[in-house]
């Protein structure tokens, strides 16, 4: 069974989906079914149940929002993808809060050439576990914020929070 919890954040509800203590999806939506629909058919076949508390994952979100920016790093995650996509997602988890990288830098951190920036962008776009796999920390080398599945204002808020630019939650 996939367990889901909604956690309020300053940018709106964050849906967390967990299977046996491992996050399989997370995103800024008030409807966990939106995240559930992005899971593999095998995971969807297990069913979805909304619960009051997911334990460590929900505690980590609250700690992150209170200023412990490394709190999300300890939560185990699992999402589908090719070996290259998995390397890119692992490299994303190594980008520390308060810092950003370009898509080309992310590719290099995953052991790919800088020219694999498009693959890095695709891995960010397909990321199912935001902000635990922090694709919001990747910016285009041309400047600006680029895109974000949950909207650029959410990406801007996350980056401002992580850089200490937000003092009131």
- Report the portion of residues in β strands: 5-15%
- The total strand number stands at 6
- Pick out the low-confidence regions: none
Number of H- or I-type helical stretches? 7
Q: Which of globular, elongated, flat, extended, rod-shaped describes the shape?
A: globular
**Rg value:** 15 Å
- Mean of pLDDT: 94
Explain this structure.
The protein is an alpha/beta fold and 169 residues long. The protein has helices spanning 32-36, 41-44, 56-65, 83-94, 103-109, 117-125, 152-162; strands at residues 2-7, 14-19, 22-27, 48-50, 101-102, 138-139. A four-stranded mixed sheet has the order 3-2-1-4. A two-stranded parallel ribbon has the order 5-6. A hairpin with a 6-residue loop joins β1 and β2. The longest helix is centred in the middle third of the chain and has 12 residues, at 83-94. The chain is globular.
In brief, what are we looking at here?
The chain is of the alpha/beta class and 169 residues long. It has helices at residues 32-36, 41-44, 56-65, 83-94, 103-109, 117-125, 152-162; strands at residues 2-7, 14-19, 22-27, 48-50, 101-102, 138-139.
